[in-house]
Amino acid sequence: MAGISPSYSASQQLPTPSPFSFSSTPARAGWSSSPPVHLSTLVLRFVMLVLSFVSALSLANPPKSKGQRTSSFNESSKLTYCFIVSIVVFVYSAFQLFKGVCDISYRGILISDKFSDYLSFTLDQMVAYLLISSSSLGIEAIRQAETASPLWKAAIISVSMSFAIFLVIAICALISGYKLCKRIIW
Amino acid sequence: MAGISPSYSASQQLPTPSPFSFSSTPARAGWSSSPPVHLSTLVLRFVMLVLSFVSALSLANPPKSKGQRTSSFNESSKLTYCFIVSIVVFVYSAFQLFKGVCDISYRGILISDKFSDYLSFTLDQMVAYLLISSSSLGIEAIRQAETASPLWKAAIISVSMSFAIFLVIAICALISGYKLCKRIIW
After folding, report:
1. CB atoms < 10 A from the CB of B27, how many?
2. Residue in chain A nearest B132 by alpha carbon
3. Between B82 and A72, residue with greater pLDDT
4. Which comes out higher in pLDDT, residue B48 or B114?
5. Which of A119, A162, B9, B96 allows an S-S link to A135, with CB 3.0 to 4.6 Å?
6. What is the ipTM of this complex?
7. Do B12 and A18 touch (CB under 8 A)?
């Protein structure tokens, strides 16, 4: 944008106003305040909350059958990392859910819209990378764990949940990236 | 955008044309054809190429001191994964570098601009996730390897390079995401 000289801009002016050029303000207002987008984001965040809870729970309380010794995720540093990431995702989802509800109830009072867009974009990206990192180590933990042991089952559940959360957060990251981009461009 | 009724759009029309509304077409043309952005992207891709080459080389030929036995990254599945990812990043950087040069020389003849934006955005994201995943396993390999062994040194070099490449590709992903977003919005 910096490379455009004023004369070039002026020479390209359209003779009649384009409908697109004037719809800019309503379009932004429509996007950030439209209930369907807000609601679908809330639903996605809620799904993340539930999945991360299941992931953390499966590691904290591995499913064991009769006669098998009790084991804990503390035995493996990789599974401890997976557990911590699940908790982080759970807390983040709860925060986003809370923020989403606050946005609908008290529009822009708690956090300004601009800061909220930057925050969501950055945190979504970071959480997505954390999830991929923990899933990689989780898969390694599955490979190394004894087959059909409680920890093995717990790790499989946790990694599956992590992948599911990753897909959900990828959609959230696309939405928040699009919102941020729109804010920067306009 | 779908939620905006025509009457609302019309009632919000500005009395005088805004300079921003008319600069839309030149802005896009300026962004996608401006040499500074193209050149800086090319430089970033070249840095990625060099760093991924160093990363792959350090794993393929671990630095060894006198008296130490020869070791190979094949001994550890994690390091094999890191090596494969380095090669993938190397090939991808070479492809992007080639595409960038072609874009400057034969504008939009080889790949259409639209397809190119979608492709760059998707592949940048995927390569960034691959890098984070391989770095996580690389760190685990460093923890498990014998301290000061050739493979330990090689893994440290490779993981450092992976993080550096990740930072570079994060910038590239931001640029390609912004370009794609601009294309969708206009």
Report:
1. 19
2. A133
3. B82
4. B48
5. A162
6. 0.75
7. no
Residue with tokens 């630095």, as numbered in its chain: B63
Q: Which residues of A touch B14 (CB under 8 A)?
A: 22
Q: Do A21 and B18 touch (CB under 8 A)?
A: yes
How far apart, in whole angstroms, are the C-alpha atoms of residue B51 and residue A36?
44
Domain positions in chain A are 33-62+74-185
Amino acid found at A180? L
CATH code for B34-61+75-185? 1.20.120
Per-residue burial over A126-154, b = 16 or more CB atoms within 10 Å of its CB, e = otherwise: ebbbbbbbbbbbbbbbbeebeeeebbbbb
Mean pLDDT, residues A50-74 taken together: 81
Pick from A21, A133, A185: CB nearest B185: A185
Nearest CA to B110 among B120, B98, B121?
Answer: B98
Contact B14 A22 (CB under 8 A): yes
Q: Do the beta carbons of residue B60 and residue B70 sit within 8 Å?
A: no
Q: Summarize pLDDT for A138-153 with one digit per residue, the tens.
A: 999 999 888 888 888 8
pLDDT digits (tens, 9 = 90+) for A126-135: 999 999 999 9
pLDDT of residue A160: 95
